[in-house]
Amino acid sequence: xxxxxxxxxxxxxxxxxxxxxxxxxxxxxxxxxxxxxxxxxxxxxxxxxxxxxxxxxxxxxxxxxxxxxxxxxxxxxxxxxxxxxxxxxxxxxxxxxxxxxxxxxxxxxxxxxxxxxxxxxxxxxxxxxxxxxxxxxxxxxxxxxxxxxxxxxxxxxxxxxxxxxxxxxxxxxxxxxxxxxxxxxxxxxxxxxxxxxxxxxxxxxxxxxxxxxxxxxxxxxxxxxxxxxxxxxxxxxxxxx
Amino acid sequence: xxxxxxxxxxxxxxxxxxxxxxxxxxxxxxxxxxxxxxxxxxxxxxxxxxxxxxxxxxxxxxxxxxxxxxxxxxxxxxxxxxxxxxxxxxxxxxxxxxxxxxxxxxxxxxxxxxxxxxxxxxxxxxxxxxxxxxxxxxxxxxxxxxxxxxxxxxxxxxxxxxxxxxxxxxxxxxxxxxxxxxxxxxxxxxxxxxxxxxxxxxxxxxxxxxxxxxxxxxxxxxxxxxxxxxxxxxxxxxxxxxxxxxxxxxxxxxxxxxxxxxxxxxxxxxxxxxxxxxxxxxxxxxxxxxxxxxxxxxxxxxxxxxxxxxxxxxx
Lengths: 241, 315
Hints:
Chain A has helices at about 55-60, 85-90, 110-120, 125-135, 155-165, 185-200, 210-215, and strands at about 10-20, 30-40, 45, 70-75, 75-80, 95-100, 170-175, 200-205, 220-225, 225-235. By secondary structure, chain A is an alpha/beta fold.
């Protein structure tokens, strides 16, 4: 199934050129000759059933994996040939949010968000300025001293989003961010991701959540058994003939 | 690079894995102490050999005026040039001799004086009217044998020669002494080797468990773009702390051994042997070959830590 959307490479922040990824062992490739472009400032859903290749695609962007063949470009740089020591710098341009939040249970909300700045060497002054701003953006300004287990699922996900966004990355990758949340809370998260996207950050969200995709209409890239079967500028979850 | 996080994690890691770090420190301390003693024993053997020769050597002292040996070979006083030439020819012609060297009165005196200073018995050499002087010191030949079992021929040939005062044959005594030193040296090093291997395994386990305990933090650090070095730094510092404490304890034990064992006991009661001094102790700490404990300790903890953290914190 050919994608509907023509590729434009001028403003690409993520580009796959005939990317194939095979894991060891028999069976189909996880991604099969995938070509796609995501431009700066876009909000893109990556949909598909389990095993369709969504997580593989995200891991390739993060350079946690290398393609078996083809090329992956992030912010104009071909990352599959990138030297290992340069990978951390690449990842500073990408914020990541997960379904299970992945907060540090022994740190407060503020410390969890500050952690992302500490470990890349930001000064205490910078951290002291940016962390409260980011917590305010996600609506948790007054909860900086709470521990993660004192928060609801939605609030924990907001903390995770704050941590992913605190370094103002070029790209925000969200892997099933509403997977563990109820519909009402999921809407709140989507609004927040929309606010972040509005600042110019490219958002790529892998999801199974039909309701969210249909409610918050954005570009949809559908994967099926490692192939791009749909690429609609303003699509719904299900395939529309 | 902001190090506040690194030092916070260092404190947390030391506290969290305290018992494991103590085990590493103790094992390291004992193994480095044994290694250090092995080095001191090796240096003692070298010092003794330099001073006394080894089991392959005999010392042929030549006559001086008023020779204290009262040997009939010294009836004519100080050895003459002809007598010395004859003695040298006898040594050179012997098929029991591998090589020989001449030691002048001055050289012999200086050697003895240096040895006396090492064992704090130099009083006889010093002062306005010293008992031991260059003039009274005999010139000598150091004769290196082909095998320690065959020397009777050359000894009996030289014993009757005019100009030969005393032949010092220390093969048996030195052979036993050096034999004991060799056993002590290898015993220490073998013991040290086993314990150092145990320390290595403990360091490996500690790193593995620490990485497991920190896997959440490490995962997040990798994702947000922390460098491998930054992620590995707390582990490296924990290993370094263990190494520093282990080395310090071992250095203390070796210093106690040098002071009470060597200077106060052995050197006072076994005066015929020159003994290692604080210069040798320093070599046991910072020598290059064999590597001193200051080099060995950190190497044994930091190198496996570096290799393992590359595996566990790979970006």
